[in-house]
Amino acid sequence: MKPNDPLPPEDELRHHTYDGIQEYDKRLPNWWLLTFYGTIVFAIFYWLVTQHFPSSTDASRLQAEMARIDAAKMASSTAALDDATLWKMSRNAVVLEAGKATYKATCASCHNEALTGGIGPNLIDKIWIHGGRPTEVLAVVTNGVLAKGMPSWGPVLGAQKVSEVAAYIMSFQELPK
Question: Global pTM?
Answer without folding.
Answer: 0.61
